[in-house]
Amino acid sequence: MxxxxxxxxxxxxxxxxxxxQSSDRMEEVLGxxxxxxxxxIPGEVIEAFxxxxxxxxxxLPPSVFLEAVEQSPVAISITDLKANILFVNHAFxxxxxxxxxxxIGRNQSILSxxxxxxxKYEELWxxxxxxxxxxxxLVNKRxxxxxxxxxxxxxxxxxxxxxxxxxxALHRDVTDVHELERQVRDQKILIESVVxxxxxxxALLNSDGxxxxxxxxxxxxxxxxxxxxxxxxxxxxxxxxxxxxxxxxCKTRRSLVNHEVELRFEHGFASRWFSCSxxxxxxxxxxxxxxxxxxENCGLLLVANEITSxxxxxxxxxxxxxxxxxxxxxLVHGMRETLSGAIYQCQAPLNxxxxxxxxxxxxxxxxxxxxxxxxxxxxxYSEAVLESLxxxxxxxxxxxxxxxxxxxxxxxxxxxxxQRLLEHGVVxxxxxxxxxxxxxxxxxxxxxxxxxxLDNAIDAIDEPDGNRREITIITRSQDAMVELILRDTGSGIxxxxxxxVFEPFYSGWRHxxxxxxxxxxxxxxxxxxxxxxxxxxxxxxxxxxxxxRLPVNDQTVFLRSEND
Length: 564
Ligand code: FAD
What we know:
Elements: H1 2-16, H2 23-35, H3 43-56, H4 63-71, E1 75-79, E2 85-88, H5 90-96, H6 100-103, H7 118-129, E3 134-141, E4 147-158, E5 164-173, H8 175-197, E6 201-205, E7 211-214, H9 216-224, H10 230-237, H11 239-245, E8 256-263, E9 272-284, E10 296-306, H12 308-363, H13 370-392, E11 402-404, H14 406-423, E12 427-431, E13 435-437, E14 439-441, H15 443-462, E15 470-478, E16 481-488, H16 519-529, E17 533-536, E18 545-551, E19 558-560
Parallel strand pairs: 12-15
Antiparallel strand pairs: 1-2, 1-5, 3-4, 4-5, 6-7, 6-10, 8-9, 9-10, 11-14, 13-19, 15-16, 16-18, 17-18
Helix pairs in contact: 12-13, 12-14, 14-15, 15-16
The chain binds flavin-adenine dinucleotide.
Flavin-adenine dinucleotide binds at residues 79, 82-83, 107-109, 111-112, 116, 118, 121-122, 125, 138, 140, 150, 152, 154, 167, 169, 171.
């Protein structure tokens, strides 16, 4: 509709310019004109018409150039060097509302709405003065006062002498485009400020995992990670799920919901925990080659909510429960130790009395001797005491076997013992083997075994000649055994006592005289129950080094350590 209207108008206007529809006719007219140009016609005009014939050179009829300008959908004007209008095309008339007659001879400033900053015009004119084209946006007004945004390009038209003869202007109404751009920009700003203000970490990643957009919380996390890209760490930990999803198309990929991710920091900073969710978003390929292809890639909008404090709370609750449980177990152990001690103490005089009685009976003086009667009384009484002591022994906890990662047992015990270690100013250097095979055994028993060893190590450091206050804990796997090595910098165990310390009721502490001396006996007992062994390292010289070796489960399963 618009096209046919333009054609009609163009035809009418062709007649106004006295041009013909036929190129032959055009060339003929131009030939006559150039042969004897009328007086007063400027030299440049004669030159321009002359070039028109030469340029066409039989390839295109010269009239095509005029028609092309006239019918162009872009508003075109040609001015003199003061911007006085010499020619406008039909699109100019449609856009501005001025007819050709109304504007010829008027200055282009007729279109100015008078709000464009002066610097813009100065820029425009400065470019033209250097014979360079200029492009910019001005606020123009139509004939009836309506303003519009004009995207204007002006360029000098040079003569054969390389001097500027005319100015050419092309302009189009970009009010709608600008409005659209403004809306998009406003929306982008709005989205960015909402995303930025969100208290969760947000990042939009392209299909290669590169961050396209992030928010304030993300940048803060990146600063905390000393410039490391948090997205890389998140993606690394979510790799298993994401790799599975990659086989699907963007539309069919399932969103990620609340996957826990641990960010580990260097330089001794504690780990931080995040709950990660994500949705797949279509990402168009950038670049000209993909403009029409419509091919799309899958990007990921990743949202990570920090849950470190919840995690710490959970861990605190777990440690407290463990501490209470172990305290209870220790109490029971303590009672068993004390009662076993008492039974042991009672057993010795009872054995002596029984031996004396046997001797008296062999001599045959048992009936007449009051001593015999008294001894029998003592034995009877002692046996009754022993029986009630045996009855008072608290029963041992019966525990089922389960798969155990010794590293986790150690971590639990260290967590539970933190307060004591701090109070005694002891530094723990823990070197767990990353992939430690599992051991089948009793959780509580192994925990109390290790607690006993750790408590002993702290006590040893407190001994009068303990020097450095360090405990080193190492785990490793060797010859189908899991080995735990615990070394302290305490007083050490002399060579001649390295076996005695495992005997019941042996206590070599100088500052802890009241200890019943059953700790290592029970530790040895637990190690044996697990078909393992425990011994003092004869080569370690800086204190005491204890080795605990436990056999690995036949169908070895490797559990990842918490701290690898
Ligand atoms: P003016 O006093 O005319 O000009 C403002 C400033 O422009 C002056 O202070 C001066 O620094 C500079 N200037 C003006 N004329 C010249 C000159 N001849 N040589 C060097 N510097 C000069 N303006 C629009 O608002 N809308 C248009 O669509 C538009 N199209 C143009 C198309 C062409 C081909 C050219 C050459 C100019 C066009 N202009 C257009 C600019 C226009 O000519 C005016 O410069 C402008 O409108 C400001 O007019 P004014 O009366 O407010 O101020």
